[in-house]
C-alpha cells in the first residue's frame, strides 16, 4: 500500500480536485462508421471525476459518464453494429496516482498540464468495452480502441 503524506494529499485536494471535477473529454475511436459508403469517425464524450480518498491514501480519476453516437454501421467479423446513441453512467477507474507521481505533480511548474497529459495518455491506452446493438436486435460487447482524446 502506498502511503501519501497528509500534507501532499491536502495540497492536491485544495489545488486540483475542484479543477478536475466533471472534466469533459472527447475521444475518437479507432473504428469508423460507414454511412452511404463514406467513413465517419465514431466520437464519444467522457466525463471524469478525480477523488482524493484519505482513508485509502489514493488519488483516482474515474470515467463517470460516456455519451456518443455511432452514426453508421460498423462491421465486426460477421456482425454489423447499427447506428445508435450510447449514454452510460459508470465508475470506471482510468488513472490512479502513486506517491512518487503525486510528489512530481506537486513540484511541477505546470501541474495541471502534467496531470492532463497523464490522463489523456491513460485514456488513449485504454480499451473500453461497450454494449452495442447489432442486426437482429442482438447486443454484443464492442471493444473500443481510442485513437485520440482531447479536452473539451
Q: What is this structure, in a nutshell?
A:
By secondary structure, this protein is α+β, with helices and mostly antiparallel strands. The chain is built from three helices and eight strands.
The strand order across the widest sheet is 6-3-2-1-8-7
Cα gyration radius (Å): 18 Å
- What's the helix count? 3
Main β-sheet: number of strands, strand sense, barrel status? Answer: 6 strands, antiparallel
Provide the β-strand percentage band.
Answer: over 45%
**Number of strand elements:** 8
> SSE string, helix = H, strand = E?
HEEEEEEHHEE
Given as residue ranges, the uncertain stretches (5+ residues, pLDDT < 50) are none
Termini separation (Å)?
34 Å
Helix vs. strand class:
alpha+beta
Describe this entry's structure for a reader.
The protein is of the alpha+beta class. The chain has one domain. 22% of the residues lie in helices and 55% in strands. The protein contains three helices and eight strands; from the N terminus they run H-E-E-E-E-E-E-H-H-E-E. The protein has helices at residues 6-15, 99-107, 111-124; strands at 23-35, 38-53, 58-70, 74-76, 79-81, 84-97, 127-134, 138-151. The strands form two sheets. Strands 6-3-2-1-8-7 form a six-stranded antiparallel beta sheet. A two-stranded antiparallel sheet has the order 4-5. Strand 7 and strand 8 form a beta hairpin. The longest helix has 14 residues, at 111-124. It is elongated and about 55 Å long. 18% of the residues are buried.
Amino acid at each position: 500500500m502506498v502511503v501519501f503524506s497528509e500534507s501532499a494529499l491536502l495540497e492536491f485536494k485544495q489545488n486540483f480536485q475542484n479543477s478536475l471535477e466533471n472534466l469533459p473529454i472527447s475521444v475518437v475511436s479507432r473504428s469508423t462508421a460507414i454511412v452511404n459508403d463514406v467513413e465517419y469517425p465514431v466520437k464519444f464524450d467522457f466525463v471524469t471525476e478525480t477523488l482524493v480518498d484519505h482513508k485509502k491514501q489514493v488519488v483516482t480519476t474515474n470515467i463517470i459518464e460516456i455519451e456518443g453516437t455511432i452514426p453508421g454501421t460498423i462491421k465486426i467479423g460477421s456482425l454489423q453494429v447499427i447506428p445508435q446513441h450510447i449514454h452510460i453512467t459508470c465508475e470506471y477507474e482510468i488513472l490512479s496516482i502513486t506517491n512518487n507521481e503525486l510528489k512530481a505533480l506537486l513540484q511541477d511548474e505546470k501541474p495541471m498540464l502534467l496531470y492532463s497529459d497523464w490522463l489523456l495518455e491513460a485514456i488513449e491506452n485504454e480499451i473500453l468495452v461497450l454494449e452495442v446493438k447489432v442486426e437482429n436486435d442482438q447486443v454484443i460487447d464492442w471493444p473500443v480502441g481510442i485513437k485520440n482524446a482531447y479536452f473539451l
